[in-house]
């Protein structure tokens, strides 16, 4: 594995807020505070034993404000982009004799304020978006019209996710709640069931037993609106078996100490976390799954997840990236010290060769994996049959792991010497202690026990 911060002019030195890989060509799309979408070809650094690089290909210029979210459709024929001011655009790929080009297909107008996150349905027919106007909208991508408005949140919706089995959608807000919506189709119209999502769970607080077992105490599961990021990008696993939620917040019993965490929700019970991943030194802002499943290595038969294959996912905090698989307890790789400002998004290439992340400091990090480094691809991955599969999360024995030491991190070379200013109006007013202060890259040294909550 080789990686680091690529020292090129991504978006006129302004914050890079989102990125995504095309599912077929492998082109990388980035969106930034310069109002532009740029397409890049990723060049392997394997032959020169260097980090991968990016070559500029094209720009998609239409937005009149900062681009916060980019996602290619599953077929790769469309690209959705959400921006400040409620702008939401669907681009369509056109093939001509001169080559391929992206053109505006639909302009989706209804959000009153900034669009912060979006996600396609697995068939590419629908789109969900989350906004600063506190709402989620289900869009009919072909008609370019509003299909349904989900307005249960009381603060910014900073992350949305669409279940690959199309039964659920999920949203995460700075009101400290996650809402799980289930599809209850309405009467068929012309032989077709109409999507109709209703809120099944509103996840607010967890409950923990005190050491003396005398009473239990409820606590908030998620950070409040003071979290210094406008993104809480959650994700379903490719098979739909579990959901990962960032911005987790956990208070250690009989102590004032809190731990940043990522919550794992089993599809069998989406009302509460089944597991929390070991805490990081900074809040988690995004999670993203590798699209490929890998064969089991047999290294940990008593692992947390009961799957016939290994899934790999990345967890980004404000300043670090942790890569996990479903067969091991500790992360399989940790990248730290890469950026001087908050990480904003994560993307995997379709072949799992590249992993990219964007940052408010105006730069992106690219990581390249060697052939079979992550394992042998598995042919078993398919959307799970909910009626037949057992819960994917097992309660582990009491396991203790220690967060990474400095030697385990990958440090970027020739990093920018000073942090770029955060985009005006997009971040909470900094306190005197945070002005001009780079984010600390020092990992936590405490020992953390992963928690499993009994079913």
From TrEMBL:
Keyword Transcription regulation: yes
Pfam families linked: Beta-prop_CAF1B_HIR1
InterPro entries: Beta-prop_CAF1B_HIR1, PTHR15271, WD40/YVTN_repeat-like_dom_sf, WD40_repeat_dom_sf, WD40_rpt
Record localization: Nucleus
An example Gene Ontology biological process: nucleosome assembly
Domain CAF1B/HIR1 beta-propeller: 1-374
Gene3D superfamilies assigned to the protein according to its UniProt record, in alphabetical order: YVTN repeat-like/Quinoprotein amine dehydrogenase (2.130.10.10)
SMART domains: WD40
Ranges that cross the membrane: none
Protein name: CAF-1 p60 homolog
Species per Swiss-Prot/TrEMBL record: Herrania umbratica
Organism classification: Eukaryota, Viridiplantae, Streptophyta, Embryophyta, Tracheophyta
Gene name tied to this protein: LOC110409335
